[in-house]
Design a protein that fits this description.
alpha+beta, 37% helix, 5-stranded mixed beta sheet
């Protein structure tokens, strides 16, 4: 965890500086409504170098570099240097560095760090989840109509807009509110801290959610793929919440899929 914290804080210094001068960033279009910035690539380089120096031989899965094989096949870092790039580019302080460590394909350590406000969410398998030094737990609400549910809206160029609109209409009609914050890692971290009661999204990448999955689990939450299987990193779909709300949200979304 110390290795991860040191790497994230070093990368965050550059992100915080660039966030303060967002108008000066060099921006190139990576895909429909999906931007990559000079800040993004610099942060990933810092994280790659720091983690490699501290743990030589570990493999990587990173947003920009992709898969980088190391001599140690039992350990893999899963890294997003800047989750919430569009927020970052628009001066919205909802973005994060996300780092997870796999050992023998099991998530064992996780960190989500927001350079804009210093929020640091961490978890190690079997040791609980924390916001800074405070232990966190998922919210205890059991009635879906009292819940605030987070989601991610598929942006331009992504499929499933029609399905998402049906899902959103169905969820909105049954809960206290739906929120779209623009960074899946922070959505999951906030769920772990009890700020959100549930979360669902499609078409995510492993680096968007790996750290958040472990943090939610260590905070007492349930995380599965959209079909209820533990295949989130492969399928890209995710549902999370406490046991009752996870079940209720799965049922609501399942009704939409059945009607499609």
């Amino acid at each position: 965890m110390n290795v991860m914290l040191q790497a994230a804080r070093k990368a965050a210094r550059g992100l915080a500086r660039d966030f303060g001068e967002v108008a000066q960033l060099q921006v190139s279009l990576k895909g429909p409504a999906d931007f990559v910035t000079s800040a993004d690539t610099r942060a990933e380089t810092v994280l790659f170098e720091e983690l490699s120096r501290a743990r030589p031989g570990y493999s990587f899965l990173m947003e920009e570099r992709g898969a980088v094989a190391g001599a140690d096949k039992t350990h893999r870092w899963i890294v997003d240097p800047l989750d919430g790039t569009t927020n970052f580019l628009h001066g919205i302080p909802m973005f994060a560095i996300s780092i997870a460590l796999e050992r023998e394909r099991e998530l064992v350590s996780a960190l989500i760090y927001n350079p804009a406000n210093g929020d640091t969410f961490t978890a190690e398998r079997g040791k609980g989840a924390f916001l800074d030094d405070r232990r966190i737990r998922v919210a205890g609400r059991t009635e879906f109509d009292n819940c605030v549910i987070a989601t991610g809206i598929p942006h331009r160029g992504r499929p499933d807009h029609g399905l998402f609109l049906r899902e959103c209409e169905n969820v909105m009609g049954r809960c206290a509110g739906v929120r779209r914050m623009g960074a899946a890692s922070l959505d999951l971290a906030w769920l772990a801290a009890g700020r959100f009661d549930g979360f669902w999204e499609r078409n995510l990448k492993p680096w968007d959610m790996a750290a958040g999955i472990l943090i939610v689990r260590e905070a007492g939450g349930y995380v599965t793929g959209l079909e209820g299987k533990p295949d989130m990193l492969a399928s890209g779909g995710i549902i999370a919440g406490n046991e009752r709300i996870h079940r209720a949200l799965s049922r609501v979304l399942g009704e939409c899929a059945a009607a499609a």
